[in-house]
Amino acid sequence: MLHTVWLLCGFLNTKPCDGGRGEHCIASYLTARPRLQLSVFTCLVPDNSQLHLAVKIDPFDPHSTFERHVNVSLPQETRANGTLYAVVYVHKAGVSPLEDSREVHYAAQLTTYIVPTHAEGQRDKQKRPSPRSENPVSHWRPHLSITMMSEDFTFNKAGLPSDVRRYMRVSQDGQQMIYLPLLLVNELSFRVRDLVEISSSTAQLPLTVSYEGISLRGFRFWVHLQDVVYSLRQFGFTEENIDEIKETLVDSNLYLLVLTALITALQLICEFLALKNDFSSWRKKKSMAGMSRKSVLWRSLSTLLIFLHLLEETSLLVLLPVGLGACVEVWKVFKVFNIQLQWKSSRLYVKKLDEEERKTVEYDTQASRYLSYLVYPLCISGAIFSLAYLRQKSYYSWLINSLVTGVYAFGFLSMAPQLFINHKLKSVSHLQGTVLMYRGVNTLISDLCSCASLFSSSGSFSSSHQLSCFRDELLFFLYLYQRRRYAPKARRRESGTHSKKLKTQ
């Protein structure tokens, strides 16, 4: 969180160079308003050989915005499952870029390798794909988005930002140091759904070349976002997941992204504190009186199901915290059922329950029986309704999907037996209040953000969406009511005496 805030402050507070104070300044090449040309070439290898001109913009205005649609001829090597590159040059007008000493260029791939998707008819007939379709095939990127910093900004040589330094080329003009235009190909505009498979009979494919001049803040912001996307690939995110993140980053303004980062950081802090306090309190807990076995068991099973569901389609960055949470929940099951392992004999044994724990088990069984009258019919009907999913996936995937859907839909009811036990025992002292507070705040923030996103996307939403967003908070508020009602009388008396003293003073 602090690193993100530091980066954003750097974007907003980049100070220009003041030559009057004796600072070494680097001026922009665009300050002299040279007559420029933008040329886009295609080649098999991103070097200065065998370049084929695709787009030519002469004269080129760095402050303008344009879009060109062209057809690009594909070489035989590209049609044979090969690659093709685009090299963007900004150079002096009327001069070849290879002869211009102050040209800048940027190379980007026009092709990418992915496993081709199968047609719907093949899915319905359950045909086995050919061996070639299981291997990555070259696909065409129909969009090439070019951006360049068009702001005449003077940098301080001693305080040059590291993200700008990577794209900067410095030239000497007499006594003055100048930097050439900062050119960038926007990789965030690329989407997997827009890819076109290249076959051996494809001679030409359309290409849309767009350009936009941006400020220094915008340039640094895009560079930072592209570094984030690169890091996500290194962490194992799939291209489909990265596309969703790209749409969130590109379609949102800077202030909304800052707010999202702050909210995410707050949720991570609350989740970390809840996990820490939960583990600490359960490790010190000696008696399981007042603790619902069914709630702990249900939470453990639901966490394991979610982990198995995410195991097929999520990266390690997301799986790691979920897996740690699942391990803690399984450990709590052994704790609440009084199951202990004898290391010397390598055997498991169950400790006997005392009177208070047996009474808790009776209340827990009674609450679970009442709850089953509602949950079982809903889960069975939901599984029957999702039988259409079985036609496209295996039995294992259908089973996991149905169970996870039930967990997401009715998981909030797992707290109901614990509320029933609190009501019967007229006490909440056996619960860790700080853990529930942290998780309650975290859930409330998530539901408020979901509610806001639904409202912003559709303008309004039905009461069913409101119920699905705030049903967890209903049980949480019931717990807060029990915490207030069943508070120890000594604490109430002490609070009342303290308030009287304050009034007297």
TrEMBL record:
Scramblase that mediates the translocation of glucosaminylphosphatidylinositol (alpha-D-GlcN-(1-6)-(1,2-diacyl-sn-glycero-3-phospho)-1D-myo-inositol, GlcN-PI) across the endoplasmic reticulum (ER) membrane, from the cytosolic leaflet to the luminal leaflet of the ER membrane, where it participates in the biosynthesis of glycosylphosphatidylinositol (GPI). GPI is a lipid glycoconjugate involved in post-translational modification of proteins. Residues 117-139 are annotated as: Disordered. PANTHER family: CLEFT LIP AND PALATE ASSOCIATED TRANSMEMBRANE PROTEIN-RELATED, LIPID SCRAMBLASE CLPTM1L. InterPro entries: CLPTM1. It catalyses: a 1,2-diacyl-sn-glycero-3-phosphocholine(in) = a 1,2-diacyl-sn-glycero-3-phosphocholine(out); 6-(alpha-D-glucosaminyl)-(1-octadecanoyl,2-(9Z)-octadecenoyl-sn-glycero-3-phospho)-1D-myo-inositol(in) = 6-(alpha-D-glucosaminyl)-(1-octadecanoyl,2-(9Z)-octadecenoyl-sn-glycero-3-phospho)-1D-myo-inositol(out); a 1,2-diacyl-sn-glycero-3-phospho-(1D-myo-inositol)(in) = a 1,2-diacyl-sn-glycero-3-phospho-(1D-myo-inositol)(out); a 6-(alpha-D-glucosaminyl)-1-(1,2-diacyl-sn-glycero-3-phospho)-1D-myo-inositol(in) = a 6-(alpha-D-glucosaminyl)-1-(1,2-diacyl-sn-glycero-3-phospho)-1D-myo-inositol(out). This is Lipid scramblase CLPTM1L. It comes from the Eukaryota. It comes from Dicentrarchus labrax (European seabass). Keywords: Membrane, Signal, Transmembrane, Transmembrane helix. Belongs to the CLPTM1 family. The chain crosses the membrane at residues 254-275, 296-311, 370-389, 395-416. It is a multi-pass membrane protein. It is found in: Membrane. Pfam families: CLPTM1. One of its GO terms (cellular component) is endomembrane system. Residues 1-19 form the signal peptide.
